[in-house]
């Protein structure tokens, strides 16, 4: 553990159990404010006075220089790496934790000196404990869409989430942000949606003050949603829709989600609320979304309804191909609306203006265009 991190951690808690010197330092302001008769009669030589002042000045400088440490699990993923960048911009020291730390944001980025990449598996308790040491806050944005071996929805979204939350509480972490999703339901027939809902339950049980963040479907350059739709609509004369294209979506820009998470960690929002649902500025039906994208890229695609039962058969076949591009769990997500609740706080309550999807479509279509 770095000394600056350790001192920052000590400064946020009562230090009375560590040493008489630390107890004296913490109580000193109280003694100084007390009546003269209540003060201890200390007789210090000028040299000692100078020494005390020097130590105090040094400690104050250390406290000014020390930055809170935020540990981001899943810090190299689509959302995670953007959260890491935003946290760095907000002057935090950040640990990007993943099984593949080589995929962390570039060390040549601004503020990268405050970025530590760590290798840890959320299913390995000792590795999680090591990653949590000295953390002020933790973000869990570990996600799984395709099960493989021991990496199942229950293992990652429920068991690992419970373990991480419990260990964070035991480590004295002040704030925990857990990334879930709109529509998470512990009673759903979908294994993925059910695991997301159960994950929220176990996190709240282990870390009662945890903040649940439920984004709608996220979009952005290099995503697996909008980018694929742009590519397909550009080349396909006929596009098969999920069902009749009536599912309602409220796509949210991934950078807006990253900023929301950062503001909640930095206590720049209504953090008395424990659940946030983040949606974009517009609600589309799936067909409306496809037509909007096609119009902005100049495609003349025709849209054909395709029953969900047939999509599930396609998904089953796809799952047996390495690197499956479509799974039945993804299809199940398209069978239910993902619209932010009006009864829960979202981007407006965090003073974030949601980004429209159209400029990002243009950026994906023409990479030189900035969203």
Describe this structure in words.
The chain is of the alpha/beta class and 371 residues long. The protein folds into three domains: 3-33 and 48-65, no CATH class; 67-215, 3-Layer(aba) Sandwich (Rossmann fold), CATH 3.40.50.720; 217-254 and 281-342 and 355-371, Alpha-Beta Complex (UDP-galactose 4-epimerase, domain 1), CATH 3.90.25. The protein contains 13 helices and 13 strands. The protein has helices at 3-11, 20-33, 46-65, 80-89, 125-132, 153-170, 191-206, 226-235, 254-265, 286-297, 308-319, 328-333, 358-365, and strands at residues 69-73, 93-98, 115-119, 137-140, 175-179, 211-215, 218-219, 238-242, 248-249, 252-253, 275-278, 284-285, 302-306. Helix 5 crosses helix 6 (153-170) and helix 10 crosses helix 13. It is globular, with a radius of gyration of 25 Å. The model is unreliable at 1-52 and 54-64 (pLDDT under 50).
Identify the notable features of this structure and list them briefly:
7-stranded parallel beta sheet; disordered N terminus; globular; single chain; UDP-galactose 4-epimerase, domain 1; two-stranded parallel ribbon; Rossmann fold; 371 residues; alpha/beta; 13 helices; 14% strand
Superfamily at the CATH H level of the largest domain? NAD(P)-binding Rossmann-like Domain
The share of residues in extended strands comes to: 5-15%
Work out the radius of gyration.
25 Å
The number of helical runs is 13
Shape: globular
Query: Structural class per helix/strand content?
Result: alpha/beta
Strand order of the largest sheet: 3-2-1-4-5-6-11
Tell me what the CATH architecture of the largest domain is. 3-Layer(aba) Sandwich
- The helix content, as a percent range, equals 40-55%
Mean pLDDT: 82
CATH hierarchy class name of the largest domain: Alpha Beta
Q: What separation lies between the terminal Cα atoms?
A: 39 Å
The number of E-state strands comes to 13
SSE order, as H and E?
A: HHHEHEEHEHEHEEHEEEHEEHEHHH
Main sheet summary: 7 strands, parallel
* CATH fold topology of the largest domain: Rossmann fold
- Low-confidence parts, pLDDT < 50 over ≥5 residues? 1-52, 54-64
Number of structurally distinct domains: 3
């Amino acid at each position: 553990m770095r000394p600056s991190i350790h001192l920052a951690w000590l400064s946020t808690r009562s230090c009375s159990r560590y040493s008489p010197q630390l107890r004296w330092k913490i109580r000193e302001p109280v003694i100084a404010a007390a009546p003269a008769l209540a003060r201890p009669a200390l007789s210090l030589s000028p040299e000692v006075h100078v020494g005390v002042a020097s130590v105090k000045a040094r400690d104050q400088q250390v406290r000014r220089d020390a930055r809170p440490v935020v540990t981001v699990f899943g810090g190299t993923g689509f959302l995670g790496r953007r959260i890491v960048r935003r946290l760095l911009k907000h002057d935090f020291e950040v640990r990007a934790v993943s099984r593949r730390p080589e995929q962390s944001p570039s060390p040549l980025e601004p503020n990268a000196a405050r970025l530590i990449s760590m290798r840890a598996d959320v299913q390995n308790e000792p590795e999680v404990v090591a990653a949590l040491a000295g953390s002020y806050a933790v973000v869990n944005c570990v996600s799984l869409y395709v099960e493989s071996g021991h990496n199942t929805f229950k293992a990652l979204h429920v068991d690992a989430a419970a373990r991480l939350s419990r260990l964070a509480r035991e480590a004295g972490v002040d704030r925990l942000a857990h990334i879930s999703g709109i529509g998470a339901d512990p009673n759903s027939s979908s294994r993925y949606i059910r695991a997301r809902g159960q994950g929220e339950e176990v996190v709240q049980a282990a870390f009662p003050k945890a903040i649940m963040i439920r984004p709608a479907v996220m979009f952005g350059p290099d995503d697996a949603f909008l980018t694929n739709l742009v590519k397909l609509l550009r080349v396909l004369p006929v596009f098969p829709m999920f069902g009749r294209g009536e599912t309602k979506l409220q796509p949210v820009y991934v950078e807006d989600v990253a900023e929301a998470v950062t503001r909640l960690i930095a206590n720049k929002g209504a953090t008395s609320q424990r659940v946030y649902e983040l949606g974009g500025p517009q609600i589309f039906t799936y067909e409306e979304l496809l037509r909007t994208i096609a119009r902005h890229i100049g495609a003349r695609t025709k849209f054909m309804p395709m029953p969900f039962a047939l999509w599930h058969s396609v998904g089953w076949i796809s799952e047996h191909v390495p690197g499956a591009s479509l799974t039945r769990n993804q299809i199940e997500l398209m069978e239910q609306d993902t619209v932010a609740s009006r009864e829960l706080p979202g981007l407006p309550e965090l003073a974030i203006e949601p980004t429209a999807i159209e400029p990002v479509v243009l950026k994906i279509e023409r990479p030189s265009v900035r969203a």
